[in-house]
Amino acid sequence: EVYSVSPGRDGRVWLATTYGLVRFGDGKFTVFTNTAARQPDGWMLRTRTAIEDQAGNVWCGLDSGLWRLHGEAFTNVSAPLLRGRQRVASLLEDRQGALWAGTRSGLLECRQGQFRLWTTNDGLSDSLVFGLVEAPDGSLWAGSERGGVNRYQDGRWRAFSTAEGLLSQHAWPLHADPDGTVWVGTGGSLSANAYN
């Protein structure tokens, strides 16, 4: 199963799959096995999402937390604000170089090595964050399990829910068009809502 596909540098493509991280480049597939993320019964934890940042670092979201690929070795990224190893369902690097990770505990921001965890206490409508996208105007959009979609702009969160036209509070995946329209897929339907 492939959970996400993300473009990398130099024409590479990263695939997050049930069996780990896969890179497609130069006409061939390379599988990276994260042996450090194995469960006690030996089953490898699935890779939910992966991105290559502007500096060429590869970040992976697994059921066991946030990982970084160095060469062919994985390192678990210790995020002190997350309790234990949390599933990371989505990743995004914004235009300023900050890394955002959607987790079951909220939205984790890593900016210049400093972590901040955004939750319902900070204005999110739901702390179960599964989808992320940055719009052309620099606003950050976070889709959630049961709280609709949230937009972060000018230092504040604003929620969009069924009251604003979503067909479901399950709001992901997300896509931003160059004209600023943000498309929100909702659970249980083949519809999309556009915000501009």
Structure description:
- There is one protein chain.
- The protein is mainly beta.
- Helix content is 0%, strand content 51%.
- The mean pLDDT is 88.
Give a topology summary:
Elements: E1 2-7, E2 13-17, E3 20-25, E4 28-32, E5 47-52, E6 58-62, E7 65-70, E8 73-76, E9 88-93, E10 99-103, E11 107-111, E12 114-118, E13 129-134, E14 140-144, E15 149-153, E16 156-160, E17 171-176, E18 182-186, E19 192-195
Antiparallel strand pairs: 1-2, 2-3, 3-4, 5-6, 6-7, 7-8, 9-10, 10-11, 11-12, 13-14, 14-15, 15-16, 17-18, 18-19
List key phrases describing it.
single chain, four-stranded antiparallel β-sheet, mainly beta, 19 strands, 196 residues
Q: Which runs of at least 5 residues are low in confidence (pLDDT < 50)?
A: none
The strand order across the widest sheet is 1-2-3-4
How many H/I helices?
Answer: 0
Shape: globular
Q: What structural category arises from helix and sheet content?
A: mainly beta
Q: Order of helices and strands, N to C?
A: EEEEEEEEEEEEEEEEEEE
For this structure, the quaternary state is: single chain
Mean pLDDT: 88
Estimated helix fraction: under 10%
Radius of gyration over all CA atoms, rounded: 16 Å
Distance between the termini: 33 Å
Please report the total strand number as a whole number.
Answer: 19
Beta-strand content? over 45%
Describe the sheet with the most strands. Answer: 4 strands, antiparallel
Q: What's the short story on this structure?
A:
With 196 residues, the chain is mainly beta.
